[in-house]
Structure prediction request, 480 residues.
Amino acid sequence: MKTPLKKRGASSATVIGSLIVGLLIGAGVVYVAAPSIGLSSTNTITKTATGAGSGTVTTTVTGPSGATVTSTITSTVNSGGSGLCNGGTITLGLLNDLSGGLSAQGQGDLAAEQLAIQDVNTYLTSAGCSLQFAANSQDYKLDTPTALSQLTAFHAAGIQVVIGPLNSGTAAGILSYADSNHIVLISPSSTSAALNIPNDYLFRTAPNDAAQGQADARELIQAGAKAVIVVNRDDTYGDGLANATIASLKQDDPSIIIGGPTKYDVATTDFSSVITAMGSEWTQLSSQVGAANVAIYAVSFQELGTLVQQANTQNAALLNTTIPWFGSDGEAQNSLLSNSTVGQYTSQVGLYSTLFNVVNNSKTLDFFQAHKGTPQLAAITGGGVFYTLEGYDDVWLAALSILSAGANNGASVQAILPTVAANFYGLTGWEGLQPSGDRIPGSYNVWKVVGSGGTYSWILAGTWDFNTDEVTWLPGQAPA
Prediction:
């Protein structure tokens, strides 16, 4: 896409209009496959627009399954936006976990968000707009009171839009303050169905877990499970996804037997009682359906590494099940679950884990190529590629929404952001949202941990298709 340059004598409002239309529309592109980073099959986008700064925008996206989504909007750039390009800096808040149970993802999100800030500013400068964006980055340590304190400080500093938090428990805990004070939250990875709330100030650029629950249930059934031991974090995310998966399992196979769910406090570091409960359930369910038909399903963050290490000492039989273990997006691609210490155990159980699919597109491939070999890309790929790349896209959504609103005002951004998202195609694909502000569901990739010569890594094992509710395994990667 060619960058529109400011013409001599053009007004700032016209410049902003050209920026918005140029970024939201782009050119028709055909995208190529890149299975090495887990992207889906070929995708085509066609977009047309009339006007600069105002007019009609029509977007048609044709996905790999052949389904199309078309949205048409009429947009007018607020004349108040003329002041945005006359200098100044707008600060976005960043709420990432950099030292708690999602630190691998949080560090990747921060790296991606910092790159996005640079790219947004480069684009604004090249377009003749003197506005710049900055970031106020905070580590909330996966702790809700800390995040609320930081959000309060953001509000006092005049920050209107915040990227984060990462987890649903914290999002739930700070949402009332955000709603009351008109602070827009854009989370790349909060997925609990309990936060499926229309007209609030929380936007979630991942789908909620109604879809992931069905994906995980289908995996377990296709693996031959007749009984499932469920263990999960006792928080908004863990309880929500575990319940969604159990409901889908019972709907798809009413005869399936559920063990648990065995819940653990999010601050747990000693999983002895959890492992004891899992062992008791294993013995009971094995006597009912046969040991070869019992599966273990864990809805966790990176604390699962501690659980499997302790299980190896306390009840090693749990790591030698016929059906491998299954996980979720809280674990998928987390580098701390595939390191030299933990990888020997997670590779032993497989840990087949779902993660929303990064839709194959040339922007993603260009991004990977541009940052190949850098510490930033290493962090991004170590924290769950969809969620970390989404941190990059979320910065762009925030910036474009502020530009479209014509002001750095939370209420105005909240009103315009769904329209901006519906017409934005980022590193992770089309950003269309449901009325709840959650991303429109799509397919999920399934990742697992493998080992070779003492080195462990996540590899793509298959894909769950949203339209057919079936998992397609890559050759040799089906659970066995």
